[in-house]
Amino acid sequence: MTSYISGFYKLSPEQRLDKVTEHLELSDDEKKILKGEHGFTTEDADRMIENVIGYLPIPLGVAANFKVDGEDVFVPMATEEPSVVAAASHAAKLAYNTGGFTTSYSGSIMRGQVQITNLKDPYGALARIYENKDAILRLCNEQDQTLVLFGGGAKDLDVHVIQGEDEKMVVVHLLVDTKDAMGANAVNTMAEAVSPLIENITGGQVVLRILSNLADQRIVRARAVFEDPFAGDQEAINKFMKAHQLAIADPYRAATHNKGIMNGISAVVLATGNDTRAVEAGAHAYASITGRYRSLTQWELGEDNSIIGTIELPLAAGLIGGATQSHPVARLATKILQVKKAEKLAGIIAATGLAQNFAGLKALAGEGIQKGHMKLHARNMASMAGARDDQIDQVVRLAAEQEKFSFDAIKQIVQKLEK
Questions:
Q1: Which one of 4, 54, 200, 378 has the lowest number of neighbouring Cβ atoms within 10 Å?
Q2: Is 377 a catalytic residue?
Q3: pLDDT by residue (tens digit) across 152-182?
Q4: Rounded mean pLDDT of 339-356?
């Protein structure tokens, strides 16, 4: 299978789906689900959340040209924002012939926090918790013997004394290997079950019993070498690097820089039915872990004006539980990715974020972010301006000829066509 397809964006949705299914052996029913012809209903939605009145479809695109750890992959991305899928595909194309993306994964350890207050001797309580570590871990693992059977479960404790406003409190971190699950339910169940035992050990009162989304022992890294995107233009290359340097030094820039990264990451997380809010919270917390909010990526110059990018972030995404299995489109998204392990899924997600960041910096160092974005947004604006379906392509073409993509300019084009 190759994901390197020239002119993929020029194909119709049906033709793109045919290209993807050539290698993945999707059934006719699965293709109909992806096209929205059947598969997700209000009844499905009502099983997932409360007070359902309907559901909100989000466009599902596929980023092409990705090679991750030596394997070609089509990357499903669920997003409402124009230019995101195109940008990721373009960036991946520039890394394809240099080996694509290489990833690594620190493991699938999640933290569950148990907060203990009203302690007479917080440091003594900390010591007693460690003295009873085996009993605490044993009780945790009794809550999910299936996870333990697959090699996961509670593995260790990490205990902290934290100064609050009016007292020192102890926070026990349960270090749980959740394997191929995101793990929130498993960790929360363990934290709640073990709390009475911890109260008996410490003589304190447990308040919070919940996982942390700062999954700093579930780190994924991705690296790629991108071919010179500026045809040797040293001024543009320098602008690229200086734009990155500002994201390292300035939190105002870093917030927008990292938002661009999350455009790619959140789109894949959503497409696979994972928790976008958990991943985003963890990523932004990790960006601040040094005490200053900064970029999640690093960029360096390589040979022949190539640009070397790396990304590092916590990524709690799984293939078991939640909407990853209950949502029919999410199931198909993981089938398109051909992933069987959370480790591989995390690597692809991180690679997409790195590609997205490269594309954003490339645009900023060149013609700016708006020209390409607005050009791709023109179809939406044409519809907003009242263009009929059979007029939209003509409106976009005329806007491109004039190089004017504002809503007012597109509205004028639509009005002229109506005369």
A1: 54
A2: no
A3: 999 999 999 999 999 999 999 999 999 999 9
A4: 97
- Which among 30, 144, 177, 275 is annotated as catalytic? 275
Single out the residue of 268, 259, 218 nearest to residue 104, CA to CA.
Answer: 218
Backbone angles phi, psi at 299, to 5 degrees: -130, 135
Residues forming a β-bridge with 117: 205
Q: What is the rounded (10 degree) CA torsion for 112, 102, 301, 305? A: -150
Q: Which tokens belong to 339? A: 């992933």
How many Cβ atoms are within 10 Å of 101's Cβ, its own excluded? 26
User: pLDDT digit string (tens) for 12-53?
Assistant: 999 999 999 888 888 899 999 998 887 688 988 898 899 999
- Rounded distance, CA 236 to CA 264, Å? 24
Q: Both tokens of residue 375?
A: 């050009």
Task: Give, in order, the Cα–Cα distances in Å from 386 to each of 164, 245, 416.
Answer: 58, 43, 12
pTM: 0.89
Give catalytic status of residue 312 as yes or no. Answer: no
Strands 219-226 and 101-105, how do they pair? antiparallel
Q: Which two tokens stand for residue 155?
A: 């593995």
Number of residues that make up the chain: 419
- % helix / strand / coil in the chain, to the nearest 5? 50, 20, 30
Among residues 93, 244, 257, 373, which one is catalytic? 373
Q: Which candidate, 254, 289, 288, 259, places its Cα nearest to that of 276?
A: 259
* Residue 44 falls in the annotated catalytic set: no
Q: Please count the other Cβ atoms lying within 10 Å of the Cβ belonging to residue 39.
A: 17
160 is an active site residue:
no
